[in-house]
Design goal:
The protein is of the alpha+beta class. Helix content is 52%, strand content 14%. It has a six-stranded mixed β-sheet with strand order 1-6-5-3-4-2. Strand 5 and strand 6 form a beta hairpin. Helix 5 packs across helix 8 and helix 5 crosses helix 9.
């Protein structure tokens, strides 16, 4: 059953009110991360309130695609990847570089995931973009990261973007590129070209077609004859959530 705009707003109001207590209780949640998550919830609430002002009922919006227990894709490609191409397990990530939850996953879970599974040849980690509509810098950040990737620095640039999420926009992208000693002219030309923006938006369209509308979302599965099949892991989950999906797949490959 669809929630009305009023009810959804009430839910987010409750989340906003309870967030400080959650932040205090979470040892690994920094003040900056807590502030970023608070800003995220405020942005969502603002969208809901704007919808109510325009008298557009939530129930009138197109129904989201039903969430299926498994996902099948014709391939498991992305614009950047880590790990062996013949790894027995593949993880496809849909990320928004302005999303504080994505930054939290990158800082807290990804290093453990990389050490245990990616660097050991057990998992290939593929990333795709899902720039959310209420993040004004999501697309520009995705484009900048892709352009850094053209110079072999996608993953490093992405981590630096996550570290300065509160300051994205304007000259921030070229400054990061300069700090990393990227070719400034090539970086600027890449950002101005329409191809990477279109590619990031195409990733979003593909994600939405699968019923994936939030970030971060991960698909954990295997590739057989070029076709990927896997399950979802939604949100900035701890390593254990990925282990629960990865280990049975590894066991099945033995």
């Amino acid at each position: 059953m669809l929630l009305t705009t009023r009810k959804m707003t009430m839910v987010f109001t409750f989340l906003l009110a309870s967030l400080p207590a959650v932040a205090m209780a979470a040892d690994t949640l920094t003040k900056q991360q807590g502030d970023a998550i608070l800003a995220e919830l405020k942005a969502i609430r603002a969208l809901l309130e704007k919808q109510a002002e325009n008298n557009v009922p939530a129930a009138a919006a197109p129904a989201a695609a039903p969430v299926q227990p498994r996902v099948t894709l014709p391939d498991a490609e992305g614009h950047a990847a880590l790990g062996a191409r013949d790894a027995p397990v593949t993880i496809i990530e849909f990320t928004d570089l302005q999303c504080p939850y994505c930054a939290r996953f990158s800082a807290q879970t990804f290093p453990e995931l990389q050490k245990k599974y990616i660097d050991t040849g057990k998992v290939r980690f593929v990333t795709r973009d899902l720039p959310l509509a209420f993040h004004a810098q999501a697309v520009p950040a995705a484009v900048a990261a892709r352009c850094a990737g053209d110079q072999g620095k996608y993953w490093e640039y992405r981590e630096r973007l996550f570290a300065v999420q509160q300051d994205l926009g304007g000259a921030a992208y070229s400054k990061l590129a300069a700090d990393m000693k990227l070719d400034a002219q090539a970086f600027a030309a890449c950002r101005a070209a329409p191809g990477n923006k279109a590619a990031a938006e195409a990733d979003r369209t593909a994600a939405n077609a699968l019923g994936i509308t939030g970030t971060p979302t991960f698909l954990v599965g295997t590739v057989t004859n070029g076709t990927f099949t896997g399950d979802r892991v939604t949100g900035a989950q701890p390593l254990s959530a990925f282990e629960a999906k990865i280990e049975p797949l590894l066991a099945g490959k033995k």
